[in-house]
Give the backbone structure.
Amino acid sequence: MGYRGSKSLLLSNKSVKEQRADGNYLTNLVKLRCALMDCENSYQVRFLSKQLKLNKLFFSTVSVRRSQLNPYFVTGFCDAESSFQISVTINQNSRLGWGVRAFFTIGLHSRDLALLLEIKEFFECGIIVKNDSKNEVSFRVNSLQDLTNKIIPHFEKYPLLTQKAADFLLFKQVIELMQNKAHLTTEGLQKIMNIKASINLGLSNELKFNFINTVPVQRPTIKTINIPDFNWISGFVSGEGNFFVDIFKSSSNKIGYQVKLRLSITQHSRDKELLDLIVKYLDTGIINIHSENSFVLKITKFVDLTNKIIPLFEQNPIHGVKYLDFIDFCAVAKLMNEGKHLTIEGFNLIRKIKDKMNTKRKID
C-alpha cells in the first residue's frame, strides 16, 4: 500500500505484502482450482463475462500464466510492486574502498512465481531469486547492460505514473554515471551518493557517517495528467488492488445479512492525485482518508462494478494469484445479480466463496 519510494523496505523489512501470505509457489503452467460452487466440474475460464452468463457456477480450473503481458500492464504492476535501488557497500578490492551496484527488483510471495516468470520473459533479462524460508520470490536485474538496454527503455516508452517515477529518473542518472565509470572516481562516487540520498529512504546511518559531504539532489516532481491505457490499471490493481466481499448484519433484510462488493486501492497521500485520475478514468468510485498518510479509493456501486469494472478487467485481465480473487468476485456478482444473496441458500454460498478469498485462499 501507498508510497514506499521503490519499496526497498516494507512491513518488518520484508518485500512481500501480507495479503500474499500462506501459499506455495506456482510453476509456469500450474493449474489452480477456484471454488465457485459446491460441485467440482472443471471448466476452463478465459473471459469472466462468459462465466457470469453461465446458468450454473462451477469449480474452475484456470491457469495463472496467460499470453504475453501488455507493456502498460507491466508498468502498472511495477508502479505497485517494483523497486529501483542503488547499493553502496564497503569493497576492499576497490581503489576507493566502496562498491556501487544498481538493481531493479520486484518482490512477491512465492505463490506468484508464475507472474514473475512472465515478467522476466517480458523483459528478456534478469534472474529469479527464491527465499523458501520466507516464501518469497524476486525478479532481479543488476546487469548494467540489461538495465541500460531493457529496463530503462521500457519505462521511457511506458512511463511510471506514481511518485515512483522520481526514483526511476534518479536511478537513470546513476546508471549514466556508472556507464561513464564515474563510480570509480572520488568525485563521481560523491555525485552518486548525492543522488542516492534522494532515492527511496535515502542513506543509511553508516553511509551518512562515511559521506559527510553529501548534499541530496532535488527529487523530481511527478505530475501525472492522464491514464494512458486501462492495462496500466489492470497492472496496478494486480499489485495494489483488492477485491472484497463484505457481509454485514442487517435488520432490514429477511435473512438478517447484507452483501456488498468492493474494489479498493490504497495509496500514500503523495499519490492522491493519481487516485483522482483513476476515478475520473473509470467514471466511478470515491476516495476517503484511510490513515494519517494514506487515502483509499473504493468502488462499491453494484451497477458500476457489473457494468463497468468487471467488463473492463475481462478485456484487460488481472494477472497473478489475485486473478482468482477476481473470479470469485465475479461469481458473487452473478449470484447477487440473480437475487440469490437474498436467500439463505444463496447467502451461505456467497459466504463460502468469501471464506476462500484473499488471505484465506489456499493454493494446491
The CA atoms of residues 69 and 122 lie 7 Å apart.
